[in-house]
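Dear colleagues,

As part of the handover before I leave the project, I'm documenting each prediction I ran so the next person doesn't have to rerun anything. This entry is a single chain, and its sequence is reproduced below.
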Amino acid sequence: MASSSILSDSWCERDPYGDKESDSLFYSWRNFSDIIKHRTRYVFFKNTFKTEDDGMEPYEVLDKIGEVVYGMQNLYNTFDVAPLFPTIDFYRVRQHKLKNEAKSASGLGSPPNEIAMVNRMSPAGISMFYCSDDESTAIAEVLNEKDRAKKYITVGCFQNTRPLNIINLNHLKNVSLFELDKSEFYQAVQFLWRFRAEISKAVSRDGAEHYEYVPTQVVTEYFRDVFSTKYKIKIDGIQYPSVKRKGKSCFVLFFNPNDIVDSHPPRKPKSVKSSVMNSSSKASLVLLNKSVKTFKWCDNTKQSSHF
């Protein structure tokens, strides 16, 4: 066999006593997370807190994550699933007090910015659409059994009205040592698996979410704005592992109330001009109104235990 058949760089560590690239990236991510959670929130791109032991700059950590995701094509395009009719069922759930509180797209879809609460991928005041492609998972992610005042659960199915590009952090691809054409990503992919585990950890809703979610919120904005511009791919959301149900997916889609309409909108008053009503041609998601169902989760032990 010719000596050029095996590349030594793909099989051997350059420094067996030093940190692996995946470890260095993970330490850099941990340091980055600590900085934006506990030291500076809005000017982390400055070098104010960087020392020789801190590893990569914050923007370098984000760029490396984007580089690996793009290089490994961890992108989920709805055309890949159904090229002739590229729609996906996205289930969204609300837990609420009044029975008829969430029957339409305005009640079940993304909240208005002014009442959008802090969440895993978005800070307070920025509306996004959280959902799952599995109904039971959507319910499990939302249901708070301690809040018995909100005794109703409403679930509805939404479908996309156009192809979507989604960052896929749930079904990551591995790189084998024998895939020499992808050897540059071998260590970085190991980091990506650890990074995914970090951003998918359960966080208690006791006030800690206001800072524990900050790193994932920054990554989300990076994919939505910087990654989209750098790689010229409009990113519509992120797919990530469910915290409540192992092996299942959750999604955050970058859609606000103006991007979502009803499949059967309520009849408008004669005095209202048609131009005031939402136009489905401009919407990215449509609620299938016939799919909407509401039940009392705390009064129905069979239904509650089923989900």
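The chain has two domains: 19-85+172-233, 87-164+236-265+280-307. The CA atoms of residues 119 and 301 lie 28 Å apart.

All the best with the project,
I.
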